[in-house]
Amino acid sequence: MTQQQKFSIASISLFAGWLLSFLFEGEVLNHLISASEADGGLIGLMVIAVHFAGLFSCGFLIKRTSSAKMVMLAGVLVCFAGSLIFLMPFSMLWYLSAIAMAYYAGLFIASWGYFYKWSTPRERRLQTAADVLIYANILMIIVNVITNHVSAFLGFGLSSLILLAAIPFTYRLETEVDVLQTESEILENPAVKNTMFKPFVFLCLFIVIITINSGIMYQAVRPAFAHLGLLATYYWAVPYILALLILRSLPSDFNRAYVLYIALAMMGISYLLFMVLNTDATAYLLINTLMLGAFGVFDLFWWSLIGDFLDSTKEAAKVMGIGLSMNVLGILLGGFAGSAMMDAVRQPHEAALIALAVVFIVIALMPVLNSQLNRFFEDHAFVMKLAKEIEADETMDPLKTFKNTYQLTDREGEIIDLLVQGYTYKGISEKLVVSENTIKFHSRNIYQKLQINNKMELIKLINQQLS
Asked: CA 240, 244, 250, 253: dihedral to nearest 10 degrees?
């Protein structure tokens, strides 16, 4: 693991740990709201809606890694200053602060897409996504335990320290790729971009539908076990973390697509148990283990897929932001559905019927989603391979004919792929685990074969061949 990858993981993990423990249904904020006259339901709804807006809009505002880094640093400062408002007596500033923090939190996470792409080799994106989700949830558990069983203000202080700790790691993220972007040395092949569009839309639809169950869980299932305070505080996210650890540790050639169907079964069984069992500790352990384990599988599924989509575009913040905003949108829709059902019948078990219907819809969508992803990805861990051969050589590698024409070696082909994506020599050497001098040596050979002098001429030549 490179130093930049470590900085990237630390930055987003610390920020996400604060987000989960404070702003996004966090115990720290819940305690502060309970001790005030604020409308907790309104603040929670505002946070989710505005966070969605921040994620979705980021890619339309942030186009460069240097801008992304500045926004991430500003996001930490805005969120820290905004959280301090909640130590003051309740006023309208609380709502304004929640809006500002939620929006900048969305900008931070979407902007991180650039560093997810550039600092992490494609073959390690799944492990990186798992690490981020694991670390963030461990931090959340620690803060929640202190908040619920020691002191809410001590929990607030710890969450604030976690947030501020993201600053030095974010500051040390490199943005040298902007030099290539300024010189227009990134190839964004329209054929690849068009091929990407349909499977990405299907993935977004899948994320929205499946995370409706997350919203229902927050509105119906979690409140039903609120009386098990100690157990819920310690055990809440443990199955989620264990599922991520298991998936992260599986061999690289293991087809994780089958795990998606297992997770769907776990989710369906958990809601069935919720409908038939009481709300004692045993029922909680069974239901929470199945439900949160399933959520862990699906979160890693789309985090890792979004990471792989990043290689097909230079607008990393747009792909990252829109993809994860679908998760938030699903939670928002599920929250509305669960809340409406609770208001109508006052029976949390009735809300579980919606969740079961969602599971059946997702089961029907899975083969279609897999088919779309199969046409775009050759080797993603969660994509189940079709029995038939897919005639998509040009789609999978639009430069294949170009490489064959000039008789480039496999290593030279790998270097060209990375050069046109905007990698520097240093970045390529880290990604391919060879020295920078070796990359320069291969690059000179490439230029000689193509009878060109620099990367700018390489981009022009490739564009001519593909047009």
From this structure: 120
- In whole angstroms, what is the distance from residue 357 CA to residue 132 CA? 31
Q: CB atoms < 10 A from the CB of 40, how many? A: 13
Identify the residue with better confidence: 190 or 128: 128
Structure tokens at 325: 């905003």
CA 330 to CA 218: how far, in whole Å? 12
User: Could you give the angle at the alpha carbon of 399 between the alpha carbons of 394 and 403, nearest 5°?
Assistant: 120
Half-sphere exposure for 117 (CA within 13 Å, toward CB): 29
First to last CA, the chain: 38
Cα R_g (the chain), whole angstroms:
23
Distances (CA, A) of 271 to 106, 212, 316, 338: 30, 13, 36, 13
φ/ψ of residue 186, rounded to 5: -110, 130
Task: Write out pLDDT tens, residues 226-267.
Answer: 888 888 888 989 999 999 999 999 887 787 888 999 999 999
Class of the CATH-defined domain 1-176? mainly alpha
pTM of the model: 0.80
- Residues 213 and 334: their CA atoms lie apart, in Å, by 6
Here the tokens at position 5 are 């990858």
**Burial call 285-302: b when 16+ CB within 10 Å, e when fewer:** eebbbbbbbbbbbbbbbb
What's the CATH fold of domain 192-387?
Answer: Growth Hormone; Chain: A; (1.20.1250)
Q: Mind giving me the DSSP string for 398-463?
A: TTHHHHHHTT--HHHHHHHHHHHHT--HHHHHHHHTS-HHHHHHHHHHHHHHHT--SHHHHHHHHH
Task: Spell out the domain ranges in the chain.
Answer: 1-176, 192-387, 399-466
Q: Average pLDDT for residues 55-62, to the nearest whole number?
A: 96
C-alpha pair distances (Å), 213 with each of 228, 274, 286, 324, 358: 22, 13, 17, 16, 7
The predicted-structure confidence for 81-100, as pLDDT tens digits, reads as follows 999 999 999 999 999 999 99
Query: Cα–Cα–Cα angle for 277, 278, 280, nearest 5°?
Result: 120
Do 192-387 and 399-466 show the same overall fold? no
Distance, CA of 143 to CA of 237 (rounded, Å): 12
3-class secondary structure, 63: coil
Q: How many residues does the chain have?
A: 467
**Main-chain phi, psi angles of 384, to 5 degrees:** -80, 125
The backbone torsions φ and ψ at residue 315, rounded to the nearest 5 degrees and listed phi first, read -95, 70
- CATH no., domain 399-466: 1.10.10.10
Label residue 388 by pLDDT band (50, 70, 90). very low
